[in-house]
């Protein structure tokens, strides 16, 4: 039944998704990599990773969220569909940028972009769960993380740091995607 639900929901979700932010993130990522990649391929890719994650941070924003809250489709599934509609575009852009780059740390930067995108989606899910739009919450939080952890990222091995960020993102996403209506109808034992 889940596969059939997925097929039925992907098309209208893709049509209803806000594409401006992910497309703008991709365009800015290409521009950053082109401009700053001349100075340092690693810096160009790192800035591109941040731009792609910022574009994805608006993927869960849904103006119709209030009307679909009562949907029989679980919240985690709805978020997964919205993310699955938007994430392929920045993923393709990243693959193109990383494969043509001369950056010696492209593999680590790939883990970085995956971690930043996962964290952006997790924070956006928390923002939508709090009753607002996820993008306006996730974008500044993501920029704050990148800016505030610059020294920490240099002190810890980059692979370890980004693996930890990915683990935190997974935990946040799991907590944020618990369906609030799931507990209705249960009686307390007191």
Description:
The protein has helices spanning 2-16, 20-36, 41-56, 65-68, 75-86, 88-100, 106-129, 135-148, 150-155, 158-176. The longest helix is centred in the middle third of the chain and has 24 residues, at 106-129. Helix 1 packs across helix 5. It is an all-alpha fold and 190 residues long. It contains ten helices and no strands. Helix content is 74%, strand content 0%.
Reading the helices and strands in chain order gives HHHHHHHHHH
Helical fraction: over 70%
Tally of helical segments: 10
Instruction: Tell me the β content.
Output: under 5%
Oligomer: single chain
Mean pLDDT rating: 84
Class by alpha and beta content:
mainly alpha
Ranges where pLDDT stays below 50 over 5 or more residues in a row are 184-190
Q: What is the rounded distance between the termini?
A: 37 Å
Our count of domains comes out at 1
Q: What characteristic shape results from the CA principal axes?
A: globular
Please report the total strand number as a whole number.
0
The description of the largest β-sheet is: none
Radius of gyration: 18 Å
Topology:
Blueprint: H1 2-16, H2 20-36, H3 41-56, H4 65-68, H5 75-86, H6 88-100, H7 106-129, H8 135-148, H9 150-155, H10 158-176
Structure summary:
The chain is an all-alpha fold. The protein has 10 helices and no strands. It has helices spanning 2-16, 20-36, 41-56, 65-68, 75-86, 88-100, 106-129, 135-148, 150-155, 158-176.
């Amino acid at each position: 039944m889940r596969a059939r639900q997925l097929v039925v929901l992907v098309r209208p979700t893709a049509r209803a998704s806000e594409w401006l932010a992910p497309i703008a993130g991709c365009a800015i990522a290409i521009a950053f990599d082109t401009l700053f990649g001349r100075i340092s391929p690693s810096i160009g890719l790192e800035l591109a990773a941040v731009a792609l994650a910022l574009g994805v941070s608006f993927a869960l924003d849904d103006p119709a969220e209030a009307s679909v809250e009562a949907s029989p489709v679980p919240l985690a599934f709805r978020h997964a569909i919205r993310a699955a509609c938007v994430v392929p575009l920045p993923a393709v852009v990243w693959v193109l940028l990383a494969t043509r780059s001369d950056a010696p740390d492209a593999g680590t930067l790939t883990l970085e972009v995956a971690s930043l995108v996962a964290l952006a989606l997790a924070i956006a899910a928390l923002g939508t769960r709090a009753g607002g739009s996820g993008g306006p919450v996730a974008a500044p939080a993501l920029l704050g993380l990148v800016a505030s952890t610059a020294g920490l990222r240099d002190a810890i091995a980059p692979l370890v740091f980004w693996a930890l960020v990915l683990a935190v993102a997974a935990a946040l996403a799991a907590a944020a995607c618990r369906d609030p209506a799931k507990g209705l109808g249960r009686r307390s034992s007191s």
